[in-house]
Amino acid sequence: MTEYDVVIVGGGMVGATLALMLAQRPGLRIAIVEAAAAPRADGGFQPSFDGRSTALSRSTAQAFVQLGLWSEIRRYSNPIGHIEVSEQGRWGRVRLDAAEEGVEALGFVMENAWLGRLLYGACAADAAIDWLSECRVQSIDTAAGMQRVQAQDAQGELLLQARLLVAADGAHSSLRAAMQVASDTFDYTQCAVVCNVESSEAHADRAYERFCHGEVLALLPRVDASRALIWTASPARARELERAQEGEFLRQLGQRLGPAWGRWRARTAPVVYPLQRIIARQQVQAGRVLLGNAAHFLHPVAGQGFNLCVRDAAALARTVHAQLERGADPGEVASLRLYEQGRQRDQAMITTFSDRLVRLFGVDHVLLSHLRSLGMSLFDLTPGSKTLLARLSMGAL
Ligand SMILES: Cc1cc2nc3c(=O)[nH]c(=O)nc-3n(C[C@H](O)[C@H](O)[C@H](O)COP(=O)(O)OP(=O)(O)OC[C@H]3O[C@@H](n4cnc5c(N)ncnc54)[C@H](O)[C@@H]3O)c2cc1C
């Protein structure tokens, strides 16, 4: 039985970020148990660190500054100088501009696989963190106030124990089930089709979100001059797009975006992600915390899921550090409940914002369409509301 202060199950984007935050306090011993192989320096994907790109908000950038990782992340990320939200065939649009908001960028776009390699490299280099890869947790239990984890790797069975167990094992968390925490699931009956594309017009640091009759196309500027495309559509349409010949896929893309973009080229093949909202009814128990997608899995339309998780992870790390500072148990349920309560407002705001955006633009109705056009134009003309949206997008509220 190997003993740690904290065992994190799931070395995805959130579990790895939390480990680095916890390790900021000297003397802590942390284990990450991750089912997938460690990210390789020469490429390759694992479930969390795949070909998707994530728009990192300014609050996330700030968190990585504190971890000493920002200069490296900045090298592999592209700033978002402008955001434009529009609807096909309607005149209203919302434009956000970094210079108008008085900031360097509204966010930064980075490929998950790159971020994963960086986070893994930083964890592997930190003596406080043991990263157990290709190791799957089979069961958990509690004995004498300690959280015990039984896991399996190629060599056989491993037993770990810690005063705090963090389940960061994704949207369909088996630990959430083992903790007997119920969750509320809503199926959007939508999928995201994700790939990288390039147009003959340079991206000029512009991000776009375009609503087209129940489908949403988001384009994020990437550091290699291509754009990350996230095309949200019904499951049947998504599979059709995934199977379409490259030329047909690009034709449909061009048709939805209009001629101003020039010629499109595909850089990667499309991958489909089913979209649901899964919210755990409880995020903490004595000695246990649900974090990341295991706690709340959101629609990616607002690009806020990971950014929200980073703010959760920072708050959890502060709670653990404060407990240890006063010689108390990091798994003490009262302190974990305070953490959970402290995160409620931010989580509720981002969940509602993401959900409303999906519903508002998902309904294809002529009157509603006009109202949306009007709303977007008013939004564009009203500096206060734009600043509010910009602050929300930047994770600065
Ligand atoms: C299409 C799309 C686009 C997105 N874009 C954005 C964006 O622009 N901005 C943003 O902020 N967010 C975005 N998100 C959300 C973001 O991707 C998630 O918030 C983030 O991936 C959550 O990471 P996680 O580590 O909690 O979970 P995951 O990424 O699911 O990682 C869970 C990890 O746990 C491991 N695991 C599972 N079970 C076990 C077990 N039993 N034992 C050991 N290990 C286990 C898995 O192998 C995996 O590595 C997007 C999401 C999608 C789907």
Describe the overall structure.
By secondary structure, the protein is an alpha+beta fold. It has two domains: 2-53 and 112-184 and 277-355, FAD/NAD(P)-binding domain (3-Layer(bba) Sandwich), CATH 3.50.50.60; 74-111 and 188-275 and 360-394, D-Amino Acid Oxidase, Chain A, domain 2 (2-Layer Sandwich). It is 37% helix and 31% strand. It has twelve helices and 20 strands. It has helices spanning 13-22, 58-66, 70-75, 98-101, 112-124, 174-178, 235-243, 246-257, 305-325, 333-362, 366-381, 383-394, and strands at 2-9, 30-33, 53-56, 78-80, 82-87, 93-97, 107-111, 129-132, 136-143, 146-153, 156-167, 183-199, 206-212, 215-221, 227-233, 264-266, 271-280, 284-285, 288-290, 296-297. The strands form three sheets. Strands 5, 6, 12, 13, 14, 15, 16, 17 and 20 form a nine-stranded mixed sheet that branches. Strands 1, 2, 8, 9, 10, 11, 18 and 19 form an eight-stranded mixed sheet that branches. The chain has a three-stranded antiparallel sheet with strand order 3-7-4. Helix 1 (13-22) runs parallel beside helix 5, helix 1 packs parallel to helix 9 (305-325) and helix 9 (305-325) packs antiparallel against helix 10. It is globular. It starts with a strand and ends with a helix. The structure holds flavin-adenine dinucleotide. Flavin-adenine dinucleotide binds at residues 9-15, 33-36, 46-48, 52, 54-55, 136-137, 168-170, 174, 192, 194, 230, 273, 292-293, 300, 303-307, 309.
